[in-house]
């Protein structure tokens, strides 16, 4: 697009959050998706989605070349592997879908030299990997040269006509607005709160003396189902790998430390690992039909757009909105728009399942939290940097002891989005919502939506 004045706002800081904690696998191979799309939709939709993902990969590569970005972009083959012979038939079904759709790929039986045993591998050729932070730092420099204004620590709270109000009370007037906030913060208006399930997964960066080939990006289908990719460019004695996995839905509330330890143990079974550099948790929005939501935010406004629900494959599906929404703003047609429109037919059975189970899961986790026995706020003893859910009379509160002084932060334990009980995440020092994925720091400030309001907070001294 040309001739548009562009402003970007970010709740925290750019290149943080999910952007910094991602496996960055740029691929159209997204699990056993294409046999699913053929069954649930049709062959035309399945092929069109593959085309859209390959077009996004090509766009990423073209932008990098045009602006000479140092993003370690390189082409690799995507590989889904199975360990058990009983799982081979599932790969065979997906391989048949590849053949039907004309996808460049093949099924192999132990045809890749890997440092661990497999029974079969499904290859999709000409996929990609990169270093997202390196790449996006270059993008930021390009944006600055083009006069794009960026406001960090600025959160959108509400819309009124063509005016966005931020958390600090400022107003931004717009001609067009794109809501690309992971989970749309205006979710009530589009019923988005019941359109996504939140999946949490974990990542681990290690060096290894027994790496897989550099020209493949691996994804396990059975067993622990780990993803594995190389990180190119790190100045280490041994090759550097990024393992991902141990995913679960947010309402299952699994302990982050336990999940990371399981990921470490499974990763050590795949390769002989040396140093461990970094570990993290990420969360993704999952849609009923496994396709993203890209297009008009609602049916009442033709200048409000949304990009969300990337189903763990954001590297391609954050590029696709730039292609689709720019065409919509310019009044041009886009061949992919109808397929991923938020207002598409998502399939009756899929929608019923999503809309029925999402509130039931929220109620189930809320019921479990109500039955838990929490310590009394006056009896609990916390070390500096620790937090816990506590009882304060008849109410539940979140309690955190500051590391720098003897102050305690006492926050409301109810998410400001829809009132779900919050859980304490010790490694990240955050209050996390199991229902829709909102997150708050220990001071109660929103760091990830859909919540837009901070938690009520009271600060107490150690001797209060």
UniProtKB/TrEMBL annotation:
* SUPFAM superfamilies in the cross-refs: FAD/NAD(P)-binding domain, ISP domain
**Which InterPro entries does the UniProt record give?**
FAD-dep_OxRdtase (IPR006076), FAD/NAD-bd_sf (IPR036188), Rieske_2Fe-2S (IPR017941), Rieske_2Fe-2S_sf (IPR036922), Rieske_Fe-S_prot_C (IPR005805)
The Rieske domain covers: 374-464
Q: Name one Pfam family in it.
A: Rieske
Top-rank taxon of the source lineage equals Bacteria
Keyword terms of this UniProt record:
2Fe-2S, Disulfide bond, Iron, Iron-sulfur, Metal-binding
What Gene3D superfamilies does the database record attribute to this sequence? D-Amino Acid Oxidase, subunit A, domain 2, FAD/NAD(P)-binding domain, Rieske [2Fe-2S] iron-sulphur domain
The family database entries (PANTHER family) matched by this protein are listed as: RIESKE 2FE-2S IRON-SULFUR PROTEIN YHFW-RELATED, SARCOSINE DEHYDROGENASE-RELATED
Kindly provide the name given to this protein in its UniProt entry: FAD-dependent oxidoreductase
The record lists the organism as Salinicoccus sesuvii
């Amino acid at each position: 697009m040309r001739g548009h004045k562009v402003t970007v706002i970010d709740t925290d800081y750019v290149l943080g959050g999910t952007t910094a904690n991602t496996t960055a696998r740029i691929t159209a191979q997204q699990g056993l998706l294409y046999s699913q799309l053929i069954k649930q939709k049709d062959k035309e939709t399945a092929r069109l989605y593959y085309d859209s993902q390959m077009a996004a990969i090509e766009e990423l590569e073209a932008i990098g070349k045009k602006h000479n970005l140092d993003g370690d972009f390189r082409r690799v083959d995507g590989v889904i592997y199975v360990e058990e012979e009983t799982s081979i038939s599932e790969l065979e079904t997906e391989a048949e879908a590849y053949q039907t759709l004309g996808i460049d790929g093949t099924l192999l039986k132990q045809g890749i030299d890997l440092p661990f045993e497999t029974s079969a591998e499904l290859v999709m050729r000409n996929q990609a990997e990169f270093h997202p932070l390196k790449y996006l730092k270059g993008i930021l420099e390009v944006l600055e040269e083009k006069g794009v204004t960026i406001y960090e620590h600025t959160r959108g709270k509400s819309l009124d006509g063509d005016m966005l109000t931020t958390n600090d009370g400022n107003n931004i007037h717009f001609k067009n607005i794109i809501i690309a906030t992971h989970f749309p913060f205006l979710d009530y208006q589009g019923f988005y709160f019941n359109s996504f399930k939140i999946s949490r997964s974990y990542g681990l960066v290690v060096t290894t003396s027994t790496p897989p080939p550099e020209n493949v990006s691996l994804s396990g289908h059975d067993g622990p189902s780990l993803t594995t990719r190389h990180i190119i460019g790190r100045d280490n004695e041994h090759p550097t790998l990024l393992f991902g996995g141990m995913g679960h839905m947010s309402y299952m509330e699994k302990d982050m430390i336990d999940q990371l330890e399981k990921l470490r143990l499974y990763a050590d079974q795949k390769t002989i690992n040396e140093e461990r550099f970094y570990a993290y948790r990420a969360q993704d929005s999952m849609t009923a039909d496994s396709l993203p939501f890209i297009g008009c935010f609602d049916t009442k406004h033709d200048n409000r757009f949304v990009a969300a629900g990337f189903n763990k494959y954001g590297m391609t599906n954050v590029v696709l909105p730039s292609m689709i929404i720019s065409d919509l703003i310019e009044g041009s047609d886009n061949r992919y728009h109808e397929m991923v429109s938020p207002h598409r037919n998502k399939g009756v059975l899929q929608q019923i399942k999503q809309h029925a189970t999402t509130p039931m899961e929220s109620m189930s986790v809320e019921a479990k939290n109500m039955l838990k026995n929490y310590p009394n706020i006056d009896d609990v003893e916390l070390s500096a940097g620790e937090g816990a859910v506590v009882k304060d009379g008849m109410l539940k509160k979140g309690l955190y002891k500051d590391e720098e002084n003897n102050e305690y932060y006492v926050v409301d334990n109810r998410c400001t989005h829809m009132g779900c009980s919050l859980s304490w995440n010790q490694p990240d020092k955050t209050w996390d919502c199991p229902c829709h994925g909102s997150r708050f720091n220990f001071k109660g400030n929103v760091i990830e939506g859909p919540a837009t309001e901070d938690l009520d907070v009271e600060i107490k001294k150690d001797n209060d």
